[in-house]
Design brief:
With 480 residues, the chain is mostly helical. The protein has 2 domains: 6-187, no CATH class; 191-277 and 356-479, no CATH class. Helix content is 67%, strand content 0%. It has 18 helices and no strands. It has helices at 6-22, 27-46, 50-69, 73-110, 129-144, 154-162, 164-167, 175-183, 190-223, 230-261, 279-285, 288-299, 309-327, 331-349, 370-391, 395-404, 419-432, 447-467. α2 (27-46) crosses α6. It is globular.
Length: 480
């Protein structure tokens, strides 16, 4: 079920009314409603894949209990590996089986073997599998390292694994943060509900008005890059950078806002990444839940930055390659990750990777300093050029695209119309940048002005949804 669909606009208020008005006094029934609603929400795509979520839930529920109850460290480690191998096994089979088979066929073809003689199986990728397998696997890992105690409430645990607002495309939640909220009685708070609605509205605006308006322009550019001039390609690349940002952060905002409607807080996933002053800051602000997951469960266990410079560099490359491969089974994603690793290493060697950990760009005034403008533009240009590999169908096409990028930079007037959407999100993000949760600015002294703005946004969103009803685009990260 898409957030930007009529079905969801009927689904959400129905669940909300049942949650607060029918089952308000019974926590177990509220969690059961969340579980049933989440399975219905996910099953709207393909009910067959509900079995994968259920199996992952059952395995980690019992593994968590066994790890906690066992006194023998070897037994604990055995159960931990059961969780890791089961979840990664699901992920590898459904997400990477086709990739490995096709790579093997290509390798055989290079040695003269006939490709038709090789048996293949077309495996369908279940929506959101990369997200919920990481979420449930981290539960077992945290119990093993004594950061969390397991719950015996299976319904609440299953609701944690399948919580519908963030089930399909995150943010990837930790059990230590989300599960205690599901196990505690929740009280409806008006301010929290209003805040949630604002986030949903803001997320829908970014997705429907900005991202979807740029989508066809991006598709046209990348589908016809061989016949287009460099200026058009450069502009198309800028369009894609803001399309994927508004598309993914828009989903996250809707997810966070929806969770607020049910009295639950989930963590931010984006903090204005295109205002980053170096590549390190960018990765602290982009897809935060995934970056922090790999930091805590892979980078630090590998030794982090504590075991010498060369091992640290090795760990950085491992993190970026694994993270890029998480995004998709294609060599283009690997190249995208390697590009970011190469951008990150100089920052690390110069000791600048911990700069701007807490500071906000332009926090001392309305406008950034000249130095900050230069840093932001350099970081944005670097990450945007790297997006070529992320968006291209193949590495060869990516290099062809880059090869034509700086030739004939003139941009025809009919290709410039998308710039207005880019400028809108830049201005709004800059205005909201000091608010880490991306809430739309509240104007208590100008209540009617705020209502007028919100109603205007709603009308624009509805108009865009009607126009694109037959061509509504899925969220980009559904494919991951």
């Amino acid at each position: 079920m898409l957030f930007n669909s009529i079905e969801y606009f009927l689904f959400l208020p129905t669940v909300f009314i049942l949650y607060w008005f029918v089952f308000k006094k019974d926590l177990k029934l509220q969690n059961l409603l969340i579980l049933i609603s989440s399975y219905f929400f996910y099953g709207w795509w393909d009910w067959r894949f509900l079995s994968l979520i259920f199996l992952s839930t059952v395995v980690d529920y019992f593994v968590g209990l066994k790890i906690y109850d066992s006194q023998d460290n070897k037994v604990k480690k055995t159960y931990l590996w059961i969780s890791i191998l089961f979840n990664l096994g699901l992920l590898v089979f459904f997400k990477y089986f086709n990739f490995f088979i096709e790579s093997w066929i290509d390798l055989l073809g290079s040695f003269g073997y006939e490709q038709k003689s090789v048996w293949t199986l077309n495996v369908i990728l279940p929506v959101g599998i990369s997200f919920y397998t990481f979420q449930t696997m981290s539960y077992s890992i945290d119990i093993y390292f004594k950061k969390l105690k397991p719950t015996k409430d299976f319904i609440s645990f299953a609701a944690f694994v399948s919580f519908f607002p963030q089930l399909v495309a995150g943010p990837i939640e930790r059990a230590s943060h989300l599960l205690p909220q599901l196990l505690s009685k929740r009280v409806f708070k008006y301010d929290q509900g209003v805040q949630g609605l604002r986030l949903i509205l803001w997320g829908m605006f970014k997705k429907v008005v900005i991202a979807d308006s740029l989508a066809w322009r991006v598709d046209y550019t990348f589908d016809n890059f061989q016949t287009l001039d460099g200026g058009v390609l450069f502009l198309g690349l800028i369009y894609f950078s803001f399309q994927i940002y508004c598309d993914f952060s828009g989903y996250s905002d809707i997810a966070i806002g929806t969770a607020k409607l049910f009295g639950i807080e989930i963590k931010s996933n984006f903090r204005f990444p295109y205002f980053s002053r170096n590549i390190s800051e960018f990765w602290r602000r982009w897809h935060i839940s995934l970056s922090s997951w790999f930091r805590d469960y892979l980078y630090i266990p590998l030794g982090g930055s504590r075991r010498g410079r060369w091992r640290s560099i090795r760990n950085i490359f491992i993190i970026f390659i694994v993270s890029s491969f998480w995004h998709g089974a294609n060599w283009t994603f690997i190249m995208w990750g390697l590009t970011h690793a190469l951008l990150y290493i100089p920052n690390f060697l110069l000791g600048k990777n911990r700069q701007h950990v807490n500071g906000i760009v332009g926090d001392k005034g309305i406008f950034p300093s000249i130095k900050e403008v230069f840093q932001i533009m350099l970081t944005y240009l670097s990450t945007t050029i790297a997006w070529v590999f992320f968006r291209s169908d193949s590495i060869s096409n990516a290099f062809l695209y880059l090869g034509k990028l700086f030739s004939k930079l003139e941009i025809p007037s009919d290709n410039r119309s998308g710039i207005i959407y880019v400028l809108i999100i830049i201005v709004l993000d800059w205005a909201f940048r000091k608010n880490g949760r991306l809430n739309i600015i509240v104007l208590p002294k100008y209540r009617y002005v705020e209502l007028l703005i919100n109603y205007s946004i709603i009308i624009v969103i509805i108009n865009m949804l009607i126009q694109n009803y037959n061509n509504s685009t899925k969220f980009i990260y559904f494919q991951f």
